[in-house]
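re: that chain from earlier
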Amino acid sequence: MVIVVSLSPELEVRLREKAAQQGQDVSFVATQLLEAVLEWEVQDSEAAIKGIQQGLEDFEMDRFRSFDDFADEQRRKYNLPADS
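^ sequence. v structure.
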């Protein structure tokens, strides 16, 4: 299958540079990059769903804390000012 994609001149330069550094054909490198991004997207979605499911299970089992406790911890952790 042939798909035509228009790239900005800057992105084309970056892609060609990457292909040259790897000693590979530009089409091959573009295909590898697309495969990696698509796989990452699937894994990221699966991780998000798993995290949401875990959060719901924790909530149902009364394993949670108040938002105020969470906010206080984040303020201490990142040295943020307290709310006025």
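The mean pLDDT is 94.
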